[in-house]
Amino acid sequence: xxxxxxxxxxxxxxxxxxxxxxxxxxxxxxxxxxxxxxxxxxxxxxxxxxxxxxxxxxxxxxxxxxxxxxxxxxxxxxxxxxxxxxxxxxxxxxxxxxxxxxxxxxxxxxxxxxxxxxxxxxxxxxxxxxxxxxxxxxxxxxxxxxxxxxxxxxxxxxxxxxxxxxxxxxxxxxxxxxxxxxxxxxxxxxxxxxxxxxxxxxxxxxxxxxxxxxxxxxxxxxxxxxxxxxxxxxxxxxxxxxxxxxxxxxxxxxxxxxxxxxxxxxxxxxxxxxxxxxxxxxxxxxxxxxxxxxxxxxxxxxxxxxxxxxxxxxxxxxxxxxxxxxxxxxxxxxxxxxxxxxxxxxxxxxxxxxxxxxxxxxxxxxxxxxxxxxxxxxxxxxxxxxxxxxxx
Length: 392
Ligand SMILES: Cc1cc2nc3c(=O)[nH]c(=O)nc-3n(C[C@H](O)[C@H](O)[C@H](O)COP(=O)(O)O)c2cc1C
Ligand SMILES: [Fe+2]
Ligand SMILES: [Fe+2]
Known about the structure:
Blueprint: E1 5-8, E2 11-13, E3 16-18, E4 23-24, E5 28-29, E6 34-36, E7 39-42, E8 47-50, H1 58-67, E9 76-78, H2 84-87, H3 90-96, E10 101-104, H4 106-116, E11 123-125, E12 131-133, E13 138-143, E14 153-157, E15 162-164, H5 185-197, H6 201-211, E16 218-219, H7 231-242, E17 246-253, H8 259-273, E18 277-282, H9 288-295, E19 298-304, E20 307-308, E21 311-312, H10 314-326, E22 332-339, H11 345-353, E23 359-367, H12 372-391
Parallel strand pairs: 8-9, 9-10, 10-11, 15-16, 17-18, 17-19, 19-22, 22-23
Antiparallel strand pairs: 1-2, 2-7, 3-6, 4-5, 7-8, 12-13, 13-14, 14-15, 20-21
Helix pairs in contact: 5-7, 5-9, 6-7, 8-12, 10-11
């Protein structure tokens, strides 16, 4: 029997569990897989499907819908988000049920056209606060752009106070039905926030503002478990979207022959001595999701890299680019480097970090293996960084 869970009366989870997926967007590691959550809301007169699933799971979705009376029973398909992990099987569902209307935002319609070639006459465009009556169940739409694409919206089930926010409030975990079933869910949710939502902090804040005053008794996102008690995840999101940082430093480094590592070790020693929360990632063996999670509330970032072919080591170049695109709220940065003859790593790091809002407190660039004097410079830089981090 396919797994179908009734969350509240007339509201069913018909999502799928992708236990084996290990990479998202060809970038984000998924150690615990993920889910693509889709939901059915059954009213007295009409039935709606909220989002679909990743391509490849069409048969699973169909089998689940069969448990609830089949695809023919559906009147509306709500597209909260056009990304293929939720919208990729829309063409399949529209083909199976020819009377079904696809409900989406105006920007959603544009994307549905180009990504899935949905004809105009199958689409029904909705705006902020528009509602669809299913009979005893009312779906209200809340435009929430850039969470995580320009077209995204939330769907709110008025009578049962259930929020379907798609990617927002999600986490990557294939296991568990409800939040309490998943160990350390907030840690997973924080990494996910760092990877997916942190670049859109302003939109995330606006999304949170739109939810103010809305009574919510359950949050049913499109990845990971369902929050039957919304409070912990809402409080966490208020914190993460605030952009407030902690007395915390995240260090990302790469070394080939240990010189840069020696500089990093000195930096870590001083930071720990000063009681600063310090997270250290050796880039070639680190999961970028853990780094993204730590960047959510780090006040400073330290990048360590030797010079390779006149610039940053490719791993450090990747990390610096990530910092640039993820737009973490960090205020300060420092660079540690070792070079053999020309140098160039520090220059490239400054070129990348320069245009960001992050203030580069200093850099130590050492020729070859660090001497006692070089380590003294690292110590001075570390102390300046500590002062900045403490000052807020
Ligand atoms: C593949 C490779 C390319 C390098 N390219 C440069 C370079 O263009 N300019 C330079 O000054 N040093 C270059 N170096 C030398 C390293 O920057 C130098 O050995 C440094 O001390 C290594 O730091 P590490 O011990 O942290 O790996 C290169 C080293 C390697 C292995
Ligand atoms: Fe998405
Ligand atoms: Fe998604």
